[in-house]
Amino acid sequence: MVEFRIDRRSGVATYVQIVQQTKHALRLGLLEPGDKLPTAREVVEATAINPNTVLKAYRELEREGLVEARRGLGTFVTNSLGSAPADSPLRGELVEWAARARKAGLEKDDVAALFTSVLDEQFSDQLKGDHA
């Protein structure tokens, strides 16, 4: 089961953090179709956020076709995303790269900016709408 971590200093809305973390778990194969998301009560107890925030996130995920609320049973994953399993060899390489970046004195935001700029370069054809 996924455990949500809320960063109140990030400037990102709490419900968006839940949506993003759920999508990351789906992309990494940590959540798969049929898996049950934690109940709103469980998320509230673990994170001390408003239950309506959790429900808003779950509604957004449902609107995107990724989960389905089943009355009296909970919210279940209906679709997966991506194909980058958590145990991918590429993850190991990325862990090593991030460790080198940190050792070189880069802060988390510096690493994120650098990585994002490389992603933008490597996937620029998709940014332009050309899915060649």
Note down, in words, how this protein is organized:
The structure is a single chain. The protein is mainly α and 132 residues long. It has helices at 14-27, 40-47, 51-63, 89-103, 108-122, 124-127, and strands at 67-70, 74-77. Strand 1 and strand 2 (74-77) form a beta hairpin. Helix 1 (14-27) crosses helix 3 and helix 2 crosses helix 3. The N and C termini lie far apart (36 Å). 17% of the residues are buried.
Helix content percent band? 40-55%
Number of strands: 2
What Rg do the Cα atoms give? 17 Å
Query: Beta-strand percentage?
Result: 5-15%
Structural class: mainly alpha
End-to-end CA span: 36 Å
Which descriptors apply to this entry?
single chain; 132 residues; mainly alpha; two-stranded antiparallel ribbon; 6% strand; globular
List the helices and strands and how they pair.
Layout: H1 14-27, H2 40-47, H3 51-63, E1 67-70, E2 74-77, H4 89-103, H5 108-122, H6 124-127
Helix pairs in contact: 1-3, 2-3
In short:
The protein is mainly alpha-helical. The chain is 52% helix and 6% strand.
